[in-house]
Amino acid sequence: MTLTIGCSKEEKLSQVEIKWTKNEVPHIKANNYKNLGYGYGYVHAKDRICEISGQAITLRGERSLRYGADAIATIGFLKTTNLNSDLLFKIRIPEEWVQEEFEKLNKETKDYIKGYVDGINYYVSTLTEEERNELCEEGPVITFKTSDVIRSAMRFGVQKELIDIGPHIISSSQAWQKKTTNYALNSPHTKAVEIEGGFGSNGWVYGSDVTKTKSSIMLSNPHSAWKRTVHQQRIYMHQYHLTIPGELDVAGASFLGIPFPMTGYNADVAWTILDAATVTPYVLQSMEVEESAVAPKYLMDGQQKPLKIKSVPVRVLEKDKKIKTHVFKFVESELGILYKLPEKKGKPAGWYAITNPGEKNAKGLDQFLAIAHSKSTRDFISAVENNRGILSQLLVADKFGEVGYVIAGQIPPITDDEMEKYHINNSTAAFNVINGTTSDASFRDSNNRPLLAPASFYPNIISKGIIHNTNNSYKYTEYGNPQKDYPSVFGQHKPDKAIGKKKAAGLRYDPRLIMSAQRMNEITKDSIVTPKEALEVLFDNRNYAAETFLDRILELNNESISEDAKNGFRVLSTWDRKNNSKSKGALLFHQFWKKIIKMGVLLSSKNDDPEIGSQINITPQNSPAIINALEEAVHELANFGFQPDDPWGEALYTTVNETRIPLHGGSYQEGLLNGEMPAPLTSKGFPYILFGTAYVQLIDWNDGNLNANVLLSHGQSNSIDYKGHLDQLKMFSNKKLYKVPFTQKDLNTTKVIDSLILTVDHVK
Fold first, then answer.
1. Is 575 left (phi over 0), alpha (psi -120 to 50) or beta?
2. Given a cut of 90, is residue 138 above it in pLDDT?
């Protein structure tokens, strides 16, 4: 297979070697970064062209052009309209910023990205027009640009802003003129952004003090969506191995759009990524605006200043199938575009600016390439500190016995004292709502760019013990050693200290964090942690809510309740309190527990210690409602054709090529570490998994030699004809991982199921 780019005498001929081993894992070897990127671009497109095309369309702000303005899309974990999504990305990732950020990247990173894009486009060029039109349902296969990769990295810094401003972007665009756009009146664009329950990733690293060897153990468990549809640009994963002999050797998996392993390993170091769910990545600055269609102004340091008008065009596919350009006009101050927000919990009504140091940041691409080169835990943390790209939490382990924790991405460098000093005079306002009428509270430099925090501002951890995280904060990440309090932008854990005259929230009810702490206590009783035990923490499928609260609930069983409720109590009393595929009672409890969550009877521990656990508040007053919730759950199952004691795998399963595969794991709300958040139950069971265990990576070192066992549960591709999809689902069902060949010796002795040589001519 050959591609020739250009015809000059200065061209250099080179090759990319791709070998696919068991479960269609691609091993890509080239002699430079551009060719390596080319090989991975080809492979990635071959497996996931529909998903990466859909993501690029979204981040370009072209969903309204392709699918109309009003349709609802899922962007990452957030649901909103196409038009709201388009406006956010056009405003917060403008083309000029994208180009500037590309030029700031290291040469190796830029070369790799250029090659990656060439490789994707080459694969697309091999498709017939008919294949391109039919391959991705109603989603088109596009031609890629380097800017699409840059946007994939930049989106992580600004996407969470959608929660606050999404439903009000359109109305803000002309509110300064004291009028409203047609799009803002009684439209889907004004509905609150829905946050899907996707924050379920886990990670555990065990240092030499508990492994009793010279090396560490890592178990990585990042979560993603399992199923792709054209209007659900969730986060999916892909697995691969990259090699430039003598220069780079790294393997792992990443979320689509980032072409370097975000959870991965090399010969010396292994790492995993988690969401920074408790981090507050920006501040909202309350502004005083003089609204006017002619000369709008804002107040800063006691002076009225003119607001600039910024026009943002969006092309929209109208209902008559014609394309029309709509122009949205926003007002812009020295703090950026302003948004007019209605009254909302924690947010008084008014005009706001956003100061977000995570904006204009594509350094995650440099960061993950630097990580791929790291030689130790400390080296890894330095790679993050020197780049700070892609807001996330990262755990790391090395073959020398050290483990670590570090936060990537840029954080508002604001202490609690500063946040208190500039907090608006409103006790109901969230802690990050500050006064925007003074330049002292702008937290920007002389060029009006958001200030960046120094390395000392962040809560790094290096240990030889245990570090674990279930998408919660730094505070309890080192097992048995709660960290000192850092500024509240990293997470609010200081109930004795309030910001804005409001009691801090403290640690929320977090059953997975508590279950993880309990499991760490159990597996360290004999002072030695083994790889087998590390995997069991994930795959034993113990249900924290059942283990902790079910005995109290069963005490409510009595002769006066209905037969259906009695039947429910009978099933739950004999359940093994796990979510294995054969567990009888897990299905009933799943339906029941969703109702308990809504009742508000669950409490966090009084002193916020996850090792103590949480409580359930059962009283004579709410007992009838709890019994009624169980009875309703029994009725729901009956309406769908299920019995209360049907095994969990009868409802949680997937079908590939007419082969039905029972699954295991369960709801984050029930404290399952092996989280599988299914779509709502139907008569055919759960139709698909919204988010859940995607890539599992168990790493240890035997006498210093890497031992990598992995699993990509949803497979490399969504194609129903894809053999690897079926094989890996069966392994997941059986709780089995497989060993990945990594060294050249491994590859020389491993069965290669397919191979390809791409010949590439690059202009110097």
1. beta
2. no
